[in-house]
Each structure stands twice: as structure tokens, then as C-alpha cells.
Amino acid sequence: MERTLAIIKPDGVARGLIGEVIRRLEKEGLNILAIKMIWMTKKQAKGFYKVHAGKPFYESVTDFMSSGPCVVMVLEGEDGINAYRKLMGATNYKEAAKGTIRHDYATDIEKNVVHGSDSPQSAAFEIAYFFNELEIFRE
Ligand code: ATP
Ligand code: MG
Question: Can you give the pTM of this predicted structure?
Fold first, then answer.
């Protein structure tokens, strides 16, 4: 079993897609071990996406991520990181496979509804960024 950090981004929350995203990940067999709604400051968004510091989209994506509330979740499942990224689809919704969340709902390369960790290392950093161990349910 593997854990990953998932976010329903401000566009997804504002457009009423919380239920739809959760329905899809539960159907896929991913279990929610922790969940909360937060509104990041610009500084918190920059810390979260610090791997992208210096890239042309860094300022814009951190403005976007701090523009409204997000739902952050710890998910667990078999091959959890890849399983959830498969459900999300490619970063650019125009390249996302049919039936993925981004294919079906994203409107922009930046406003792409969901985030998911991309490696065990990033999952460990991102889970600890938002949750302490006491907030994460376990069997
Ligand atoms: P995420 O990390 O949010 O799950 P990802 O791993 O598919 O997405 P990254 O390359 O990590 O993609 O980019 C992080 C986020 O930055 C993207 O989800 C998107 O919101 C934004 N982004 C990435 N590339 C671009 C770009 N070329 N132009 C604008 N925004 C971008
Ligand atoms: Mg990423």
C-alpha cells in the first residue's frame, strides 16, 4: 500500500467538483486517510510548489493555488501514487486521456482541478506539509 497527497484545487472547489473527484477516487479503490479544506497564503503555496521555483509558471500557479480554498487529502491504495495520477490525467488537459479528471473538467493548463504527488519522495514531503501523523487514520 502506498500513500499520496491529493488536492482539489481552487477551480475544482469553486466549480462544485469536490464530490465528483472524491467519487472517482473512491471508486478506484483509493482510501481517504485524512481530509480537510484549507486556503493557502501565497507564502504557503510557494512552499508547497518550491520544486517549481524559477520556472515561468511559478508565480502564476502559486497565485492560483492561494486564490481560494482547496481540499487536501491523504490517499492510500495499491500503487497509490500512480493510480491517482492515472485518474488525474496529464498536466495539460488537452493531452489528458479520455475519462480522466483533467480531460473531463480542466479548462486550462494551470487550472487543472487536481494535484497529486509524483513520487514517494514528493508524497512524503507533501503529506507532512499539510498533516501531522495524528490527523492520518490508519488501519
Ligand atoms: P500537480 O503537481 O499540480 O499535480 P503535475 O504534476 O501534473 O501537476 P507539474 O509539472 O508538477 O504538473 O506542475 C504543477 C502545476 O503547475 C500544474 O498542475 C499546473 O497547475 C501548473 N503548470 C504546470 N505547467 C504549466 C505551464 N506550462 N503553464 C501554466 N501552468 C503550469
Ligand atoms: Mg507535480
Answer: 0.96
